[in-house]
Specification:
This protein has about 350 residues and is of the alpha/beta class. The chain has two domains: about 200 residues, Quinone Oxidoreductase, Chain A, domain 1 (Alpha-Beta Complex), CATH 3.90.180; about 140 residues, NAD(P)-binding Rossmann-like Domain (Rossmann fold), CATH 3.40.50.720. Helix content is about 25%, strand content about 25%. Strands 3, 5, 6, 7, 8, 15 and 16 form a seven-stranded mixed β-sheet that branches.
Length: about 350
């Protein structure tokens, strides 16, 4: 089969690799029907994730059709149309029993495109299939379902839920890429009184307002001005970091109120300053996290019932064999206007 592999920092290759097979009783092999690219894949290609070694098939988000399952898989069979979650655990270890699949002790967690071969391929082996796969209703398209593989549960669990967004609260979201926009969509489920988004790109600010942000501003100075207006100068109840660079994390700590929460969602490849000399007295909570995908069934129900509008998040579409072109578009959002890209196999 054909797949995209990481071959060291800055190098990705689309070429022939061996077909995956069931190697354990809880595995499934899935034909990839639709796949996407994540900002985390760009971090890998920059060398920010040293656990990813040369030769690894990239990707952790896909929709597909089950081809084969191991003897212990009970919930899925060949022919089933499924969502592949970016994270899944064994379901039995100390962390999985608390729905912390991202911290699985038995080989689960974030493994696809990280510790084992991933989804940017014609086929993929999926461990812990009963926990990793989700049946898709006919009312949810492949393109819609792709957004449930990572960005929607990540934004909801690590941004909105960890950030303690509640009805009537005020929310600042720094970054209006796919994760930031997903944070806008899922924050709205909690009916906050005000959502302000910060992003330097005009197109992304427009996308944030279409997604439901009350205001989108270009920089830190404008964000601090918006804070004064939207919160009577107190600061936002929740500040969600959705980029993964030191400056955006530090801006979140400037925007949050005393007693508020900074929810870090972005993947960081460099240290960020933590100004405890200013924060220690403010009762600020700072959360981090890797998505556990416990919210995926709920979000899938909302999507199927038309309660979660993802229109506009996918901006570019390609054939799977055009994946190199898709990467070129996705990694240059300022020029291309790309948010999420979708690639279809056949």
């Amino acid at each position: 089969m054909r797949a995209l592999t990481f071959e060291g920092p800055g190098r990705r290759v689309w070429h022939d690799v061996p077909d995956p097979v069931v190697t354990g009783p809880e595995d499934a092999v899935v034909r990839v029907d639709a796949v996407t690219i994540c900002g985390t894949d760009l971090h890998i290609l920059k060398g920010d994730v040293p656990e990813v070694t040369p030769g690894r098939v990239l990707g952790h988000e896909a929709v597909g059709t089950v081809l084969d399952v191991g003897a212990a898989v009970s919930g899925f069979a060949a022919g089933d149309r499924v969502l592949i979650s970016c994270v899944a655990g064994c379901g039995r270890c100390r962390f999985c029993r608390d729905n912390l699949d991202g911290q699985c002790l038995q080989g689960g967690g974030w493994n696809l495109g990280h510790l084992i071969d991933g989804t940017q391929a014609e086929r993929v082996r999926v461990p812990f299939a009963d926990r990793a796969l989700h049946h898709l209703p006919a009312s949810v398209s492949d393109e819609q379902a792709l957004l449930l593989a990572d960005i929607l549960p990540t934004a909801y669990e690590i941004g909105v839920r960890n950030g303690r967004v509640t009805p009537g609260s005020t929310v600042a979201i720094v970054g209006a890429g796919p994760i930031g926009l997903a944070a806008v969509l899922t924050a709205r489920l909690m009916t906050p009184s005000r959502i302000v988004v910060v992003d330097p790109a005009p197109g992304r600010r427009e996308a944030a307002e279409r997604a439901g942000a009350d205001l989108a501003v270009p920089d830190a100075a404008a964000a601090l001005d918006a804070m004064k207006t939207a919160t009577d100068g107190l600061g936002f109840d929740t500040a969600i970091e959705a980029v993964g660079v030191p400056e955006t994390f530090e801006l979140c700590t400037d925007l949050v109120r005393a007693g508020g929460t900074v929810a870090n969602v972005g993947v960081h490849g460099a240290p960020a300053a933590l100004h405890l000399e200013r924060l220690w007295i403010k009762d600020v909570t700072i959360t981090t996290g890797l998505v556990d995908t416990s919210s995926t069934p709920m979000l899938l129900r909302l999507l199927a019932e038309g309660r979660l509008d993802t229109e506009g998040l996918v901006t570019h579409r390609f054939g799977l064999d055009e994946i190199q072109d898709a990467y070129d578009v996705f990694e240059r959002p300022a020029d291309s206007g790309a948010l999420k890209v979708a690639l279809f196999n056949g």
